[in-house]
Amino acid sequence: MSTTTAVAPLTTQDADVLVTAAGRAAEAAGVTVSVTVLDAGGHLLAFRRDDRAVLISGETSTRKAYTALQLNAPTAGLVDAVQPGGPFHTLPTALDRPLLFIAGGVPVHRDGRLIGAIGVGGGAPEQDHDFATTALEVLA
């Protein structure tokens, strides 16, 4: 008989903390971004898009979060994997949504378990990744 320990899910309050922290990090850097937070099932928990952000940044942040969630890995480390001949080159056609393999998507874990993901879009890829990881530090 195996026993499992319950892990608290990602809540809307947690998601608001992540969105706020990522937004503040971006504002401090002078960058306008969109931020998306998904729960472990891929459902939208929180979203922020500044009116000054490029419209596509909202879709970008959502796709980054979805990719990080589906692969349980930061999207920053996946860029080489999607190049022709890479292990994930054909993966986007196998899933029900397209993936976006650019830095800025980071899975959210609690007690070692995947509970959601955050995606940031609008800045340079390295900046988006930094904004997302900064937000995770605030949640911890």
From TrEMBL:
It comes from Streptomyces violarus. InterPro entries: GlcG_carb_metab_protein, PduO/GlcC-like, PduO/GlcC-like_sf. SUPFAM superfamilies: GlcG-like (SSF143744). This is Uncharacterized protein GlcG (DUF336 family).
